[in-house]
Amino acid sequence: MIERESIPLMRIRHEFKEDHLDSSGGKLIRKDCFYAQQQLNWPVYTNGVEFTERNAPTWYHDPCNRYFLIVFLQEGEIRYSAGGEKFLFRANRILLIPRGMDYRFETLRNPHYRKTTLFLLGVNLPVLLETLNLNRPMLLTPDAPGFHQQSVEELYTMVKSGDRKNLPRNMGITLELLGRISEFTREAPPLPLALRIAKSRLSSDFRNHCPIAVLAEELRMPLRTFNRMFRDHLGISPHEFRRRCRVETAKEYLNHTNASVKEIAERLGYCNAFHFSGEFRRAAGSSPLQFRTACRQKKDPE
């Protein structure tokens, strides 16, 4: 089953004093192996395998991913963003990230996680992924969480050996894994086009935001049907979806700009700063200024 969760990434690099590859203090256990930096002339194969366990806050950002990534999370929670979509990655799920894509992740309040990542390459990989409907970022829930373990361990042994005579077997295991993973996508069809358009409209241009009733009319839907579409697929109303998006956008402004509370309220289409502050406090548990102060204290600890 495919899962998505619309949660913006709030932190950026300078909030973490340690680089994500820092292994000091025993906070990171990591082992990996790769065949080569250059792509080999094979249809599809696993070029690298990485096992990671971390117990400290971290981030990672790759503006142009060189591989097709298959990430298995055994423990913890991580927040990912890939291709404009945001995912809350929980244990016993699979995350797919296509090659050439900008992606990032960050740890949450509890920074512990344990994950395994496969790095796939191949001259026929794009066609294969399109055929299997795996050519986009997606978060999947397998029916048997440990189905991949034996295959991953065998791939790790083969890649670590560096013996290219193992490539045919590598390709076979990789194809089998992709085929099995593709089975998990069939339970959840993509969101309706009308809902995707509505989400885009409601999460942007807050200053000139379109009334819900007008947006429903533009999409040729009765208002009741429009509201039901949101509740059926997202579990919240269109009004609540837009409110959450405004609050999360406000957090971005407060965290990463020096705009005043009044300026932020105007950018987000609030009638005044008092209304904005009240809604922000109800959603975030603190006033906008208190939130900004807390963010700056995290960036510049005493």
Overview of this structure, please?
- It is a single chain.
- With 302 residues, this protein is of the alpha+beta class.
- It is 38% helix and 22% strand.
- Strands 1, 2, 3, 4, 5, 6, 7, 8, 9 and 10 form a ten-stranded antiparallel β-sheet that branches.
- The model is unreliable at 1-25 (pLDDT under 50).
What Rg do the Cα atoms give? 22 Å
Q: How many individual β-strands?
A: 10
Order of helices and strands: EEEEEEEEEHEHHHHHHHHH
Main beta-sheet strand count, sense and barrel state: 10 strands, antiparallel
Mean pLDDT: 83
Amino- and carboxy-terminal Cα gap: 45 Å
Structural class determined from secondary elements: alpha+beta
Pick out the low-confidence regions.
Answer: 1-25
Count of runs of 4 or more consecutive helical residues: 10
Roughly what fraction of the amino acids lie in strands?
15-25%
Helix content: 25-40%
Shape: globular
Chart the SSEs and their pairings.
Layout: E1 2-3, E2 28-34, E3 45-54, E4 59-62, E5 68-82, E6 85-90, E7 93-97, E8 103-107, E9 113-121, H1 125-131, E10 138-140, H2 149-161, H3 167-183, H4 193-202, H5 212-218, H6 223-234, H7 238-256, H8 261-267, H9 273-284, H10 288-299
Antiparallel strand pairs: 1-10, 2-3, 3-9, 4-8, 5-6, 5-7, 5-8, 5-9, 7-10
Give a short synopsis of this structure:
This protein has 302 residues and is an alpha+beta fold.
Annotation keywords:
alpha+beta; 302 residues; 10 helices; ten-stranded antiparallel beta sheet
